[in-house]
Amino acid sequence: MKTTQENRIRFYQDQFQAVLTEKEGCKFLKYTNYGHLVGVCFTGNKAKEDWILIFNTEGEFNKKAGITAENMKNRKKWFEDRRKARKEFRHVLKNGDILEASWGYEQTNVDFYEVVQVKGKLVGLREIGSRVCETTGSMSANVIPVPGKYYGEIFFRKVLMGNYVNIDNRKVRQAGIWDGKPSYSSWYH
């Protein structure tokens, strides 16, 4: 038989005569075992208990259950607010905007992209070149984009909250709106 939350609750009720109460999407069980007050909590639909604790008093159990229920309520509200914000989000990107992705390990790579097409929540991007505007060391410089100096073909990405895009599928490079200031870049070769 598959382990489900319902099966686990039934186990506590059958084995220990546990009393079930529900609040804010949490299920609380309490029972006495060898003279100790035991509390169990399940949240959501998980089959695994969130906590199994021994309490000295009923008041301690009620306090812990209240905190857990309040946390669950706040968590639900946070997810609802985030879902609503994502649904209502409208990006501000337009044709000609420059996006910057700064990334790397032991060196700082800077890639620039130009918005060349806008389709709802998607933007068409093309990588553009950059040029050194100030040398800052033997293997570092400040660079700025060169709009219109394209590399590669157009590709589309969904604009995420904050007006940035994931350049690659591994989310290693995220590009946001370039602030118009030279960007630090370094290399080792």
Describe this structure in words.
With 189 residues, the protein is an alpha+beta fold. It has helices spanning 5-16, 58-88; strands spanning 19-23, 26-33, 36-43, 51-55, 98-103, 109-119, 122-137, 140-158, 164-166, 174-177, 183-186. The protein has two domains: 5-88, no CATH class; 98-186, no CATH class.
Oligomeric state, counting identical vs distinct chains: single chain
- List the helices and strands in order: HEEEEHEEEEEEE
* Overall helicity: 10-25%
Shape: elongated
Count of the domains: 2
Rg, Cα atoms, Å:
27 Å
Number of helices: 2
Q: Major sheet: size, sense and barrel closure?
A: 7 strands, antiparallel
Précis, in short:
The protein is α+β, with helices and mostly antiparallel strands and 189 residues long. The chain has two helices and eleven strands. The model has no long low-confidence stretch (mean pLDDT 94).
Task: Give the helices and strands, then pairings.
Blueprint lengths: L4 H12 L2 E5 L2 E8 L2 E8 L7 E5 L2 H31 L9 E6 L5 E11 L2 E16 L2 E19 L5 E3 L7 E4 L5 E4 L3
Antiparallel strand pairs: 1-2, 2-3, 3-4, 5-6, 5-10, 6-7, 7-8, 8-11, 9-10
